[in-house]
């Protein structure tokens, strides 16, 4: 914008050399002096008001930022990277042992390769099948259980792990084993399964000589509180997706005594539904709960330890283990029969995923979980792994979620 220079206007005033002019000039000076005395305090308070109510101008728009330069250094705070799980979309995960994941130098190369192959999530155990806690829980039952590993991660280390994975484009999904826990019953007497004839004794799922192990009691309110407290604590730490496993009864329950709590009137299926439902209702609306289960149980052939099909327990996502080596020697659905599913990974995953999908269609739409099957990496070639992934996406859709599993956390994504 340009401005035009105006002409200077001259006006003739009274002559100050005449008597009347001198009198008028003197009166004018006195008036000016008095006016100045009045204006000085007014100006001070006006300036003070302006300074106190001054607001910095809004930052320039993106279209003008490039034209503005400044010699003063500026600092910016980068927003935290987005969690792939927050959008509620597809999760394609790999399992990595927590011991390996805690070492950034050994895992970053793997994450880079996994990202290039289309994976965006990592599953790891924070309460493993042996009952060990791999982080320092501050919940009362966890303190009483004394199940923390000597290398258990602190809360700050967990937060750092979440942010490191986010920075690599991965969602962090901790897995928590629930009632399948041979360690905590030693120090949680009110939360364990006991013997029918000797209620103070610890029940084992087999004879001691054959490696029998104790379990947490699915009918014990304290067992529910123990696991629920861990899940809520992990959510507060920053996890937006949490996986439960071992939400079941033992395979055999001979001589098991579950006590006389308010829960023992419920069926096996209903007490497990209540457990999952209570956790779900305690979580934030956007936190997703995954439930892992044996593939054959979700398939509908071995459901005794659940009292029914575990896909109906109320989780947001059902994660059946469809690793072909775990599906037995024969897999039958309708007129379809597979002998030795491990030898035909494509057919095994396609048949199992299809059968489970049919089971889900029998549920009310509002109660159906999404599917996220476990697929097998160990003992298989890259082409056999790809066959399983192809079977999952052909059956469940191109945006299907899944978990690739190798217990040692080593993977090959290309030939």
Account of the 3D structure:
This protein is α/β, with parallel strands linked by helices. It has a domain at 92-181 and 217-251 and 264-405: Glycosidases (TIM Barrel), CATH 3.20.20. It has ten helices and 15 strands. The chain has helices spanning 19-52, 98-101, 104-116, 140-145, 155-167, 221-237, 268-282, 295-299, 345-361, 382-396; strands at residues 92-95, 121-127, 133-135, 148-153, 171-177, 194-195, 241-245, 256-257, 288-294, 317-321, 330-333, 336-339, 370-371, 374-376, 402-405. Helix 6 packs parallel to helix 7 and helix 9 runs parallel beside helix 10 (382-396). The longest helix has 34 residues, at 19-52. It is globular and about 55 Å long. Mean pLDDT is 84; it is low at 1-77.
In short:
The protein has about 425 residues and is α/β, with parallel strands linked by helices. It has ten helices and 15 strands. The chain has helices at about 20-50, 100, 105-115, 140-145, 155-165, 220-235, 270-280, 295-300, 345-360, 380-395; strands at about 90-95, 120-125, 135, 150-155, 170-175, 195, 240-245, 255, 290-295, 315-320, 330-335, 335-340, 370, 375, 400-405.
